[in-house]
Amino acid sequence: MAVPFLARLAHHDRALFARWALSGSPRLLSRRAWTAVTHLGGTVASVLAVALPLGLPGAVGDAAREGALVLAVSHLLVQLVKRSVGRPRPARTLSFEALVGEPDRFSFPSGHAAAAMSVALGYGLAFPVAAPVLVPLALLVGFSRVVLGVHYPGDVLAGQTLAVLTAALLRLLG
Question: Where are the domains of the chain?
Fold first, then answer.
C-alpha cells in the first residue's frame, strides 16, 4: 500500500515541478529576480541574518539566538535526511537544466527552504508583527528553488516542515 502511494506522490511532485519550473530560455530579468530570492535562503544570507545581531541586547539578540539555534538544528536534520534518502535533483533525472548552481547532488529536503523558514520563525516568533512579512518571504524562497529547477515541490515542503517542527520542538524544550 505504501509503495503505490509514494509512487503517486512522486508523480504529482514531478507534475508540479514541470508546471512551475522556468524552462527554455527564461527572460533574464525573471531569472535574476528568482535567483536573488533564492539566495536569501543560502548559507551566507541565513548565517548573516542570525550572526550579525547575536551580540545585541534585548529582543533582537534573543531572536537572533533562537533563529541561530533553529537554523543549526534544522540544518543538521536536513543533512541527515538528505544523505539518508539520496533523492537526485530534478536535472539529474529529468530532461531539465537547473538555472542556478546545485549545492550538492541530493534534492530531498531543501536546505534553502529550511534555512529561510528557520530564520523567519526565529524572528517572527520574537516579533509577531514581522511574521506576516518574514514567513511569506521564506515560502517564496522555497518556491524559487522549484522555479529555478533545483528542487521538487515536495523537497521544499519537507524542508519548511523540518524548520517548523524544529522551531516548535526547541520552543517546547525552552
Answer: 2-173
**Of residues 110, 173, 93, 104, the one with CA closest to residue 147:** 110
Please tell me the distance from the alpha carbon of residue 141 to that of residue 144, in angstroms, as a whole number: 5
Strands (E) in 75-130, as ranges, are: none
Number of H helices, E strands in the chain: 8, 0
Cell numbers describing residue 130: 514581522
pLDDT of residue 2: 54
What's the helix, strand, coil split of the chain in %, to 5? 70, 0, 25
Residue-wise pLDDT tens digits, 43-97: 999 999 999 999 899 999 999 999 999 999 999 999 999 999 888 899 888 878 8
Q: In whole angstroms, give the CA distance from residue 145 to residue 3.
A: 27
Q: What angle do CA 128, 131, 133 make, to 5 degrees?
A: 140
